[in-house]
Amino acid sequence: MKIHNRIHTGEKPYQCSQCVKRFSQLSCLKSHEIIHTGDKPHKCPQCGNTFKRLSNLKDHKRVHTGEKPYHCIHCEESFSWSRQLKAHERTHTGEKPYQCSQCGKSFTQLGSLKIHNRIHTGEKPYQCSQCGKRCKRLSCLKSHEIIHTGDKPHKCPLCGNTFKRLSNLKEHERVHTGEKPYHCFQCEKNFSTLRQLKEHERTHTGEKPYQCSQCGRRFNRLSNLKSHEWTHRRKATSLICVEIVPHQAS
């Protein structure tokens, strides 16, 4: 009761001797002090990884057990950690609390903002060991590396199609189930994939992030840009033919 009352009174009687930060509970102070000592007293019996807090070890153990106790009430996906669930729920609510200071674009996850910032900084910290190509994201590097191996380890149990990525298989399975878990809050249309939802949302916002390098025209979908670029290639081919034919005739 005394500890609870401190929520209302704001009392924080426990002070860190290293940085003077104060806490309402002794247990919180003890957890905080580990930051200064660097101790990691909690060891995973499965893989030997060590952690500063017992709660972190308990979270980590789910890597080995596969336990996913956190469930999304919107689409029934499950997650190992509460932070994953919170980040996922924003795909349904549309909340984007993390904003880029450079261009104003907002994101559902802090990690997504950090990755986005690399567009402005040009940072590409992940390099392919096969061809030297550099990537902004680790996930992009992993996807790229499959080009060299050609592996498609993820197989659909219903039709036998194989996929390079598990995420692609999960998206494909919705072709069979008809599931459309992603909802537009502007017009209430539903979509099978987050990518489809994002593309659709641009019809409401007017955003056109894909620009033609030849003429500057912009598009709301990458597929539309690719189709448009083909018109330039076709025109270029026609010009080459016009130049060649008179030359041959002479």
Automatic annotation (TrEMBL):
Subcellular location: Nucleus
Pfam families: zf-C2H2, zf-H2C2_2
GO process annotations (BP): positive regulation of DNA-templated transcription
Domain C2H2-type: 14-41, 42-69, 70-97, 98-125, 126-153, 154-181, 182-209, 210-237
Signal peptide bounds: none
One Gene Ontology term of the molecular function aspect: DNA-binding transcription factor activity, RNA polymerase II-specific
Cellular component, GO, one term: nucleus
Keyword DNA damage part of the UniProt annotation: no
Keywords linked to the UniProt accession: DNA-binding, Metal-binding, Nucleus, Repeat, Zinc, Zinc-finger
SUPFAM superfamilies per record: beta-beta-alpha zinc fingers
PANTHER family, alphabetized: GASTRULA ZINC FINGER PROTEIN XLCGF28.1-LIKE-RELATED, ZINC FINGER PROTEIN
Family affiliation: Belongs to the krueppel C2H2-type zinc-finger protein family.
Name the record gives this protein: Zinc finger protein 239-like
